[in-house]
Amino acid sequence: MAEMLTDLLQNIYKRIAQLGASIQTLNESLNQLNTNIEEKISNLTEKLGEFSNEINVTQTKHIDAMKEIGSVTTKELKIIQEGLGLDALKNLIKKLEEFSNLSEGILNQDTVNLLLSEAIDSVKVLKESLNKEEVVE
After folding, report:
1. Cα–Cα distance measured from residue 24 to residue 32, given in angstroms and rounded to the nearest whole number
2. pLDDT in the model for residue 46
3. Which are the contacts of 105, defined by CB distance < 8 A and separation ≥ 6?
4. Rounded to whole angstroms, how far apart are CA atoms 127 and 130?
5. Closest Cα to residue 3, out of 14, 19, 11?
């Protein structure tokens, strides 16, 4: 019976030892898993930083490219505008508007009547002058 009890205790001890070894193995596996997770998180953080930097660089390049395109397009439109004579046309329209405004002032009824009156008087004076010359001859 003592021998059975000793065998039973040895079996229990072996089982406890196996359980301890399994717990130790599990602990090592958990530590490795934690290490792997930390490495993955670190790599992910690093990649996100690089990605963010790439986005900033790309964004800046796109903005610069758009500014350059806008600047070149504006210059080209000015060249086309000058080539088509749009500036000259605008100036012509402005001059015609000024002429029109001036004409309205000059050609109002009172001014026209005064000019006609002066023209008629001049024609009368000229006619009288011619008549006098004919009489003198």
Report:
1. 12
2. 93
3. 111
4. 5
5. 11
Give residue-wise pLDDT tens across range 72-82.
Answer: 888 888 887 77
Region for residue 108 given its phi and psi (left: phi exceeds 0; alpha: psi -120 to 50; beta: otherwise)? beta
Element (H, E) at 45: helix 2-83
Distance CA 21, CA 13 (A): 12
- Answer whether residue 96 shows pLDDT above 90: no
Long-range contacts of 59-63 (CB under 8 A, 24+ apart): none
Please determine, for residue 108, whether its predicted confidence score (pLDDT) is greater than 90: no
The separation between CA 62 and the C-alpha centre of its own chain, rounded to angstroms, equals 10
Task: Please give the Cα distance from 88 to 91 (Å, whole number).
Answer: 5
Structure tokens at 111: 């001014």
pTM recorded for the entire structure = 0.40
Phi first, then psi: what are they for 58, rounded to 5°? -65, -45
